[in-house]
Amino acid sequence: MKKFLKEQSYNMVKLFLNQIALTVFGTILMLSTSENDSLLLASSIFSILFFLALSYTTCWDIGARDKIRVDSGRLKSMPSKGFVISLGANIPNLILALAMGIGILTNTEMGHSISGFCNIAARLLNGMYLGVISTIENKLSLTAIEDWWIFAVITIPSLFTCTIAYLLGSKNIRILGLLGFKPKTNKKK
Predict the structure, then answer these.
(1) Which contacts (CB < 8 Å, 24+ apart) does range 64-72 have?
(2) Do the domain assignments include residue 151?
(3) Per-block average pLDDT, block size 10, for the chain (189 residues)?
């Protein structure tokens, strides 16, 4: 396990940095569309899809590189690798969600303070989801502190996307190929 973490720490950090970049993008979109609830939700969904597409391509590339090593016998096949890499990249999100939940459940002043701090940090790390979170809070009449569970749930799309992407990459299956698009090949004359 230690060797795996050492080898995959770069990929985990890369996915986390992609999240930071899309957080900035999503937050800017959220700030520019915050006056209109429908536009806020649409821009948030667009940011999330862009984030998932970026995560998909990153994990697909990892799977495609691993396919070469697995086929040559230099690496043991690990179908759950995309999930584990994404889980590693999402550890800060999960820790913040867990800390928020524990802070709320302890029902003390210090617990609420910790929960509030973690909520702010989680919102800063998940700017692309803020429009969706705001919509859920409004529909369920939640306060910003009561929504701690949402920050755990929003990691699921990333985990799912990275798992599928790695599996498809390790089998050299392109998603656009499944939709009927053929990649251009360089033909030598």
Answers:
(1) 64/169, 64/170, 64/172, 65/169, 66/166, 66/169, 66/170, 67/169, 67/170, 67/171, 67/172, 70/170
(2) yes
(3) 83 93 91 89 94 94 92 88 94 94 88 90 92 88 79 94 95 76 63
Which token pair is 129?
Answer: 């989801």
Asked if residue 2 belongs to a domain, the reply is no
| Domain assignment of residue 35, yes or no | yes
The domain total for the chain is 1
Q: Residue 180 and residue 17: Cα distance in Å, rounded?
A: 32
Pull the structure tokens for residue 56: 């998909």
In a domain? residue 17: yes
Domain range enclosing 119: 9-173
What distance in Å separates the CA atoms of residue 3 and residue 39, rounded to the nearest whole number?
Answer: 46
Q: What is the DSSP letter of 129?
A: G
